[in-house]
Every structure is written in structure tokens, then in C-alpha cells.
Design a protein that fits this description.
One of its GO terms (biological process) is galactose catabolic process via UDP-galactose, Leloir pathway. The protein contains eleven helices and 13 strands. The protein has 361 residues and is of the alpha/beta class. Strands 3-2-1-4-5-6-11 form a seven-stranded parallel β-sheet, sandwiched between helices. Helix 5 runs parallel beside helix 6 and helix 7 packs parallel to helix 9. The N and C termini lie far apart (43 Å). The relative contact order is 0.15.
Length: 361
């Protein structure tokens, strides 16, 4: 089988994308990253996250500000580079927002993917790692969740876009055996690169738990809002499988290796730790790690939220040789390092910030 050299990363300036780019560069791949900055900080000049990924690795990234809805623009980028495989992260991803703006989500996530697949095919590039989600499982019928758990009975629009894309990939790989695709169903990515140089910097109000918690610990937000404390769980709060973003990044490198050595057609893997942690437990670990008190306000459950879910990641261990290695403490410690080094996230336009690492700027 072929050896991959150039990997295109869509959504490369985003939270998971930028961490994955670091891992790809360290594994010796060349990276062409694209992003439209719908969920990430940056502008025509580039992405602070990717500039820092270059700083961490000492390697160069080719970056284009581009939108998958602009097919000619994507076509031009493929004309310029011989892309061996695409890792497709680019998507709108806020559950709450998706319930309020379904058409925006269908247009961006589904049309974006269609355009990408058509451009890939016209450039004879048939290898892809797709960023899917445990939301495709809906409310779990059994725990832990294996890859054979039924999909499609989904509680939110964001999750439905991931499910529809998975169905699209099934049809595509059945119709044309040139395709070689791995779909990775992530559980709940948290944490940051241990350097503290890159991390999660939400650009929207619909924010994830850990950045929200860190803002409260820094005193930038008064109280952490937790949606629902009346779930049928030991402490009443929802249970999730939190996974360190660097473990998740390692999973993509493992997927690339499998694709380059085998023709799998279409394979699906869960990426999670296999352990469920409640929202309340995560807050307690975060408080312990940061020595900060985090005031909590419980409010009503959110439409579309699920009681409890955690992964059975045995298949990824057996076939990808991958397991999650980092603990919940490390997730919290690494995120707190990123947040204290960058209390306002990445420098926005017209700001210049020098981060000092080990006495060197």
C-alpha cells in the first residue's frame, strides 16, 4: 500500500484540528490545513493556533483560509497539492445552536462534505478520516457503547448531520470500492497540549464545559451553569466519557497508519477512555487541580442532552493499536495551564502577545 506524505486537514485551526496537526507534524507528515474561522480565531493572515503548532514542532504548515461551501476554491487548493489523505474536522458543532438554526447546520456540514468528496474524487484522492461523534448513538440502549450500537435515533441536529454523513459514506464506499475511509466517533474531548501554547478558545456563546469552568475559576465568569441535576445518575448530573484532546489526536495518526497499510473501504471506531465521569465529578477534579472554588448554578436540562454515555474502545485498541492514556487530572491540569497562560484565549486581531516558554520567547 502507499505511504502517505501530504495530509489535508479541514478545520485545521480549530480546537481538535490544531492538536491533531501537531501530532501529524511530529509523525513526519506534511500538512495542508484549511479553515473558514467559523469556530476558530484567525483571519486572512492566518491562524494563531497553527502558528503556535509550528512553534511547538519547528515545522511549517501550509494554510489556506477557505470554505468548503466554495467548491472552486477547494478545487484550486487540490490542484496545488498532491493530497494523499484528508482528515475532515470542519463542521459547525454547537448542539444548542444546531437546534435553533438547523438549516445553517445542514447547509454547512452536509454540503461542505459533499463538495469535499466530489473534489477529492476528481483529484483521485480516496482516503479520508472523518471526524464523527458519539451523538450518532442517541440515548444509549446499553453501556458501554460499542460500534455496533444502533445509530440514527438522535436527539439533536448537530448529531443528525454527523449521522447523515456516516450514511453518505456508507453509500459511497458501497458504490465505489476505491474509497478508503475511517470514521472516528469521538466521545468528549477536553484538555490541551501540555505546552500550554494551544487549547480550546470557543468563539461562540454555546460553550463546552471545560472552557466555561476555567473562565469561572479565573474569575471572568461568576458561576458555572450546569444543565440538569435530576438525571438518573448517582449524583444527578450527566455522565460523559471525557477524553484528552492529545489522546484523540494520537487516534487520528493511528487511523492514517491503518488506511495507508490496508484497504478498509469503511471502518468505524469509537475514541473514548471507556470510563464515565459525571459533570459534578469533573468539576471536583478541576477544583482540586486548580485550587479554585467553582460556584455552581443548576438549571433545567437542555433540549437534546443525554443522561449517560461512555465508550467501549476495544475495537480501536485491537485494530488501531490505540488506547487513551491520559487521566482526568491531566485533562484538567493541561487545560488550566493553557487557560492561565492565555486567559483571553488566542490573540485576536491587532493584539500581539509573546508567550514565554522556559525563559525563551
Amino acid at each position: 500500500m502507499q505511504t502517505f506524505k501530504t495530509i489535508m486537514v479541514t478545520g485545521g485551526a480549530g480546537y481538535i484540528g490544531s492538536h491533531c496537526v501537531v501530532d501529524l507534524l511530529e509523525a513526519g507528515y506534511e500538512v495542508v490545513a484549511i479553515d473558514n474561522f467559523a469556530n476558530a480565531v484567525g483571519d486572512e493572515e492566518g491562524s494563531p493556533a497553527l502558528e503556535r503548532a509550528e512553534q511547538i514542532t519547528g515545522k511549517k504548515i501550509t494554510f489556506y483560509k477557505a470554505d468548503l461551501l466554495d467548491k472552486p476554491q477547494i478545487n484550486d487548493i487540490f490542484d496545488k497539492h498532491e493530497v494523499d489523505c484528508v482528515i475532515h474536522f470542519a463542521a459547525l458543532k454547537a448542539v444548542g445552536e444546531s437546534m435553533q438554526q438547523p438549516l445553517l447546520y445542514y447547509q454547512n456540514n452536509l454540503l461542505g462534505m459533499l463538495n469535499l468528496l466530489e473534489v477529492m474524487r476528481s483529484h483521485n484522492c480516496y482516503q479520508m478520516v472523518f471526524s464523527s461523534s458519539c451523538t450518532v448513538y442517541g440515548e444509549p440502549e446499553h453501556l458501554p457503547i460499542t460500534e455496533t450500537h444502533p445509530t440514527g435515533s438522535i436527539t439533536n441536529v448537530y448529531g443528525r448531520t454527523k449521522y447523515f454523513i456516516e450514511e453518505m459514506l456508507k453509500d459511497l464506499s458501497a458504490a465505489d470500492e476505491k474509497w478508503n475511509i475511517i470514521s472516528l466517533r469521538y466521545f468528549n474531548p477536553v484538555g490541551a497540549h501540555p505546552s500550554g501554547l494551544i487549547g480550546e478558545d470557543p468563539t461562540k456563546e454555546f460553550t463546552n464545559l471545560m472552557p466555561f469552568m476555567a473562565q469561572v475559576a479565573l474569575g471572568k465568569k461568576p458561576v458555572l451553569t450546569i444543565f440538569g441535576n435530576d438525571y438518573n445518575t448517582p449524583d444527578g448530573t450527566g455522565i460523559r466519557d471525557y477524553i484528552h484532546v492529545m489522546d484523540l489526536a494520537n487516534g487520528h495518526v493511528a487511523a492514517l497508519k491503518l488506511l495507508s497499510e490496508n484497504h478498509v473501504k469503511l471502518k468505524v471506531f469509537n475514541l473514548g477512555t471507556g470510563k464515565g465521569v459525571s459533570v459534578k465529578e469533573l468539576v471536583e477534579v478541576f477544583e482540586r487541580v486548580t485550587n479554585a472554588k467553582i460556584p455552581i448554578k443548576y438549571v433545567a436540562r437542555r433540549l437534546g442532552d443525554i443522561t449517560a454515555m461512555w465508550a467501549d474502545a476495544t475495537l480501536a485498541k485491537e485494530q488501531l493499536g490505540w488506547t487513551a492514556k491520559r487521566s482526568v487530572e491531566e485533562m484538567c491540569t493541561d487545560f488550566w495551564r493553557w487557560q492561565t497562560m492565555n486567559p483571553d484565549g488566542y490573540p485576536k486581531k491587532h493584539e500581539t502577545t509573546v508567550i514565554v516558554v522556559n525563559g525563551k520567547s
